[in-house]
Amino acid sequence: MKIHAARGELEAFQIVVNSPSSTPLTVGVSDLVHEGGGVIPASQVDLFRVDYVEITKISDYYGRLVPWPDPLYPVSFGDPIDFSAGLNQPLWFRVRVPFGARAGTYSGEISIGQATIPISLEVWDFYLSESLYSDIDFEFDWDTVLEAYGGMSDGQKNNCCDKLEDAIFATFSDYHITPLPLETGPPKDVQLYSLTNYEVEAAHTLQTQSLLKVWWGFLGSDQAPFPNPVVIDRPGLDARVLPWMAWLNRIEGMFYSQSTDWEPDPWTTPYLNSMCNGDGFFFYPHKDDTLAFDPCDDESNQLVPSIRLELFREGLEDAAYLRLLNGQAPEIDVYNPSDALAETFIYSRTAFSHMPTVISALRIQIAEQIQEKWEGNSTYFLPLIIH
After folding, report:
1. Which end of the chain is more exposed for a tag (fewer CB within 10 A), N or C?
2. Distances (CA, A) of 258 to 60, 106, 137, 283
C-alpha cells in the first residue's frame, strides 16, 4: 500500500476486509518511520469504518438499488470491529502529514487481527498552506448537532459545549470548509450560480467589470452529466472533480445550504427531500454510544463524515496543487500550465474521465512539477503558523 502527500495534507486510503467467519477484530497502526530518520507518529492516523445506507430510490441513471457505502464511522485503534462472514468490510484510513515532516519515504504497517499490511508514504518536498484554498462555505445546523452530542439541552449550553464547538470547527478545518449557521447564505459580494445555470461569459463579465465574486452552489437538482458531490449514488470522482472544474472556470468559492439535515434520519432515509440521495447532509448522526456520550471527552466529539465529503476534500487539495504550480490564483482569460494539465481529463463541465487512476497519475505528475519548480527555494516552504 503506497500513498503520496504533501506536508500539511490529509491523505486517505482504504483496505477491504473479507472475513471467512463472523468475528470481532482489532485494528492497529504503527508509527511511520522515515528511511533517513524522523517519524510521523501513529496518532496522526485516523480510522473510520465504512458503513452503508440502503438505496431504495435512485437519484439518476448512475444509481443502483443496493446498500451504498457513504458514512465513515470513527473508530479508535484497538477497539474491536465486527466483521461479518463472507462480506466485504472496507476500512478508511487517513494520514495527517505534519507541516514539519521530512520529505521522503516513510514506512509502517497496519494490523487487522493477526494480519499485517505494510504501508509506504511518500512525502513531497512542499506544503499546502490554507492560503492556497478557495472560500468554501457550508451551512450547518448547530443547534441540532449540539443537542445530539450533549452540548446543549433545551437551547441552553451544557458543560464543555465550548469544547464540542471547537471540535466541530477543527473538523471543518480539516475539510477546508467554513461552517455557517442555517439561512446565512453566501457573502453579500458573491454572485451564486448553480452548476446547471452557470454561464461562463456572463460570470466572467461580472468578475472583471464589477466587484462581485462568482461562486458555485451545488444543489440536489443539479442532475447528471454535471458532477455533483451532494449525490450518494454517483461515482466517487463526481465529488472530487468539482474543484478541478472550478479552477478551469475561474470560480472563486463554493456554497452549500445544509450539511446536517437529520430529519428524517439519513441512515434510513437518504432520499429525504425529493431531490436526490444525500441532498441536505454531508454528515450523519451518531448511531451508537461510542460517540456523543460526553462533550468533555475528545472521543465523544467526533462527527460522522461521508465518503462524498472526504473526496470533495481530496479535490480541494488537488486544486491547491494547481494553484501552487501556477504560483497564484488563476486569472480570467489568461491560460496557465495548470489549465493544460486539468484539461487532460476534463473536457467540459459535463464531460470528464471517470477513471480514478487518471486523476491519481496526474496528481503525481503535478507534484513532481511543483518540486522541480520550487527546488532550492526553502523559504517558500516555511509554513505560516496562525495562533
Report:
1. C
2. 21, 39, 10, 10
Q: What would the pLDDT profile of 117-131 be if each residue is shown by its tens digit? A: 999 999 999 999 999
- Pairing assessment for the beta strands 80-83 and 23-29 based on DSSP bridges: antiparallel
Cα distance between residue 255 and residue 186, in whole Å: 7
Q: What is the mean pLDDT of the chain?
A: 93
Contact by Cβ (8 Å): 91, 14? yes
151-206 pLDDT per residue, tens: 999 999 999 999 999 999 999 999 999 999 999 999 999 999 998 999 999 999 99
- Total domain count for the chain? 2
- CA pair distance 28, 93, nearest whole angstrom: 11
Range of the domain at 144: 130-378
Q: Could you list the beta-strand ranges (E) of 97-182.
A: 104-112, 115-127, 135-139, 152-153, 156-157, 178-180
| Residues 299, 368 share a domain | yes
